[in-house]
Task: structure prediction
Amino acid sequence: MSEWPGEARPGAVPGPPPLLPVRAGVVVGQFLLDVVVAFTALMAVSMLASMAWAVAQTLRLVQAGAIADPADTEALVRALGQPGPLAQIVMAVLGMSAAALLLYFWRRRAGPAERVRSRVAAARPSTWGWSVLVGLAVFAASSLIGWLMQRAGVEPVPSNMALVDEAGKRWPVFLFVFAVVLAPAYEELLFRRVLFGRFLAAGRPWLGVVLSSAAFALVHEVPGLSGNPPLAVLQLWLVYAGMGAAFAWLYWRTGTLWAPIAAHALNNAVALAVHGLG
Result:
């Protein structure tokens, strides 16, 4: 799944490096096109998933006799309500996975040489040492920022917290698989391999760190969805952007996408464990 150069060190790029860095305007334009494609795919798949859920619920309600007249639109909408936590998480998985896979296979698919270099990098013990270190450091830094902001009277509530809490109570195994296996895989494929990797291959890694991390933060905390005040939103953006930057650096440092996937999974696993104990 990963794609990277022979030497695992900052400054290296996948494949033969360009003679000169690609112009910033060109690579930013490609990045923006990637973002538009990803957003379109996400919305389209989410809409299709929502429609499938509505059809399935309608059939269930009709069979149960809960709806006397399926043609009564108002009664049907009231009976359907909103998708539950499990359905919302499944829709999120389908939408984000579709966006990541579409961009990977259409826009930035790995070649055979990149796959070989990734396997070589993944075989290095230092790769996994860095993964553990970054995963734990990200969790520690996020916790420290949260503690400092609490001391300042700011306690943000992430927009997905209600879903996580409900899923943890009713479907703990599913939540673990989602948070520790699925989400790290498709998020790293999209944000690190595709978005950050485009800048890396163009010789503009630091610009890629900034823009891909900003996109990562905005996807995780969309203004207005959680009801957080501006300062709380800024804190969440800082945390998520810091995570994105750390995982991008890890990908850059180690040369394999498996490293940030592992670090991301470790961070999420520790966060789930601490949240559950709390």
User: Anything to note?
Assistant: The chain has one domain: 24-277. Residues 24-277 form one domain.
